[in-house]
Design goal:
By secondary structure, the protein is α/β, with parallel strands linked by helices. The chain is globular and about 55 Å long. It starts with a strand and ends in a 22-residue tail after the last strand. The structure holds flavin-adenine dinucleotide and FE2/S2 (inorganic) cluster. The site of flavin-adenine dinucleotide has 23 residues, from strand 4, strand 6 and helix 2. This is Dihydroorotate oxidase B, electron transfer subunit. Its cofactor is [2Fe-2S] cluster; FAD.
Length: about 290
C-alpha cells in the first residue's frame, strides 16, 4: 500500500464535544488511497522538536472526490493540545495512509455491530458509513452502533451515521445521556432487550474496553474485529515501540508480538494475548446505575 508524506492544508477546525475537535485536511494524495481503519501520522509542530514525535490519528471521514479527510481527536496531552490550537489555512506535515484496514463481512452475514468507547468513535464514523452502503444492497442487512462515553458533554454527535441507516444506541458511564453504564453494558443489555443477534463486531476504544469486548465476543462465539491503540513513536515499523503480545503463528510457546502500526491497527481479537499485556487492561468499575 503506497504511503505518502504530504503538506496538508487545514481547511476547517471545529470543537464537537468537550475537549474533542474535528479537523479537515486537504491532502489529495493521501486521501486517494485512504481506507477506513487506517491512520495517519501527524507532525504537530512545524518548528522545533516539542513534541518530538509525530502523533497517530485514524481517518474519521474520507472525502475522495474533494481530496480531503477529517480526523477527530481528544485533547489528552501536549501534542493534541497543540493540534487543537492550529488554525484554518495552516499546513501540517502528514504521513499516510498507514496500517491495515477494516474489511466487509463475509457474504452470509447480515447483522453487524460497531462498538465504540470514547474517542474510539473516530474510525467508526467512516467505517459505519461504508457498512451502511453495504447494508443498502440487501434488505436483510442491519448495522448497529453501540457508543459509550464517560459523560454527556463528551458524546460526539452521531446524526450523520443515523441518517445513513445505522441504528445507534448511546450510553454514558454516569447516566447523563442514554443508558447508564459502559459501551459493553450497552451492547450486552440492548442485544438482550431487543433480541439483536450480531454476527460480527467491529470495535474501537480504550484497551480495557477492547479486552472486555473480546471476552464477551468469545463467550457469544462471535468474531470481533478491533482497531487497537498503542503508544507509537515512528508509525512505520522502525522503532518496535507499539508491540502487543499475540498468539504465535506456529505451535511454539514463545510469546509472539505484533506491531500495531504495521500488522494493525485492525486485528481479530482472538489473535491478541490479552492476559499477557503489561499493564493488564483493567475494565473500569461500572458506576452503580439505578
Ligand atoms: C493507530 C492509532 C490511531 C489513533 N487514532 C486516534 C484518533 O482518531 N483520535 C484520537 O484522539 N486519538 C487517536 N489515537 C491516540 C492518539 O494518537 C494519542 O491520544 C496522542 O498521540 C496523544 O498525544 P499527546 O501528545 O496529546 O499526549 P501525550 O503527552 O503523548 O500523552 C498524554 C496521555 O495520553 C496517553 N497516550 C498517548 N498516546 C496514546 C495512545 N496511542 N493510546 C492511548 N493513550 C495514549 C499517554 O500515555 C498519556 O497518559 C490513535 C492512536 C493510534 C495508535
Ligand atoms: S510505532 Fe514504531 S514500530 Fe510501531
Amino acid at each position: 500500500m503506497p504511503k505518502t508524506q504530504e503538506k496538508a492544508r487545514l481547511l476547517e477546525t471545529r470543537r464537537v464535544a468537550e475537549d474533542t475537535h474535528r479537523i479537515a485536511l486537504y491532502a489529495p494524495r493521501i486521501t486517494a488511497t485512504a481506507r477506513p481503519g487506517q491512520f495517519v501520522m501527524v507532525r504537530i509542530t512545524s518548528e522545533g522538536t516539542d513534541p518530538l514525535l509525530n502523533r497517530p490519528f485514524s481517518f474519521h471521514r474520507i472525502h475522495k472526490d474533494d481530496g480531503l479527510f477529517e480526523i477527530l481527536f481528544r485533547v489528552v496531552g501536549r501534542g493534541t493540545w497543540l493540534l487543537s490550537q492550529r488554525k484554518e489555512g495552516e499546513t501540517l506535515e502528514v504521513i499516510g495512509p498507514l496500517g491495515n484496514f477494516f474489511t466487509l463481512p463475509p457474504a452470509h452475514e447480515e447483522t453487524v455491530a460497531l462498538v465504540a468507547g470514547g474517542i474510539g468513535i473516530a474510525p467508526m464514523e467512516e467505517w459505519g458509513h461504508r457498512l451502511a452502503q453495504w447494508a443498502r444492497g440487501d434488505e436483510a442487512r442491519r448495522v448497529y452502533l453501540f457508543y459509550g462515553a464517560r459523560t454527556a458533554s463528551e458524546v460526539v454527535p452521531t446524526r450523520r451515521l443515523e441518517r445513513k441507516g445505522v441504528t445507534t444506541f448511546i450510553s454514558t458511564d454516569d447516566g447523563t445521556l442514554g443508558r447508564c453504564g459502559t459501551a459493553l453494558d450497552l451492547l450486552d443489555q440492548t442485544c438482550r432487550d431487543l433480541s439483536i443477534r450480531p454476527q460480527r463486531l467491529y470495535s474501537c476504544g480504550p484497551l480495557a474496553m477492547q479486552a472486555a469486548v473480546a471476552t464477551w465476543a468469545r463467550q457469544q462465539n462471535l468474531p470481533a474485529v478491533m482497531s487497537l491503540e498503542s503508544v507509537m513513536a515512528c508509525g512505520i515499523g522502525a522503532c518496535l515501540g507499539c508491540a502487543l503480545p499475540a498468539v504465535p503463528p506456529d505451535d511454539s510457546s514463545r510469546i509472539h508480538y505484533v506491531h500495531v502500526c504495521k500488522e494493525g491497527p485492525v486485528f481479530d481479537s482472538r489473535k491478541i494475548l490479552w492476559e499477557k499485556m503489561e499493564p493488564m487492561p483493567v475494565r473500569p468499575l461500572s458506576f452503580v446505575c439505578s
